[in-house]
Amino acid sequence: MVWKSMQDERPSAVVGVVSDTHGLLRPEAVERLEGVDLIVHAGDVGNPAILEHLRRIAPVRAVRGNTDRGPWAADLPRYEIFEFGGRTFYVVHDILEMDLDPRAAGVAVVISGHSHRPSIQIADGVLYLDPGSIGPRRFLLPVAMANVTIRSERLDPELIFLGG
Which of 6, 48, 78, 122 is most open to solvent, judged by the fewest CB atoms within 10 Å of its CB? Predict the structure, then answer.
């Protein structure tokens, strides 16, 4: 039997993940983001005020989605690779625009949006996360976001379904 110390179970960081706000930042999403160490927005922000509001909660990494237009959106990258909590993250709005092999690049987490369909998948040891959309409801799809808790030994992704 293998015993793990309590230290192994403590999170080293929590990343709040949102996408497809399309100009709407729901109060219940803001509430769920309180206390995270970093916020990742996977595109289709819709309004720069969304990013300003999120930055008052935690540092923000954001990419441009297909509906993000105008001078304010020009500063948003199409994709972003960064390290946080000892893991490498790759963020792109549309997963079909991914331009690298995540495993070969040492990426631990690929975050995308665009589909409005929340999902968690693991392939070749890489976590693929689409938080869904916290913006205006689209069709019968749920309003959702995600958290990724970074622990010393593992990543714990969680989809969070919001009312509305």
Answer: 6
Return the domain boundaries, the chain: 12-162
Cα radius of gyration rounded to whole Å, the chain = 15
The CATH label, of 3.40.50.920, 2.30.40.10, 3.60.21.10, 3.40.190.10, for the domain at 12-162 is 3.60.21.10
- Residue-by-residue pLDDT tens, the chain, 164 positions: 344 444 456 678 999 999 999 999 999 999 999 999 999 999 999 999 999 999 999 999 999 999 999 999 999 999 999 999 999 999 999 999 999 999 999 999 999 999 999 999 999 999 999 999 999 988 889 999 999 999 999 999 999 999 86
**What whole-number distance in Å separates Cα of residue 57 and Cα of residue 34?**
6
Collect contacts of 79-86 with beta carbons under 8 A, ≥24 apart: 81/105, 81/107, 84/13, 84/15, 84/37, 84/38, 84/150, 85/12, 85/13, 85/15, 85/37, 85/150, 86/12, 86/150
Q: What is the pTM of this model?
A: 0.92
Residue 144 CA from chain centroid, whole number: 11
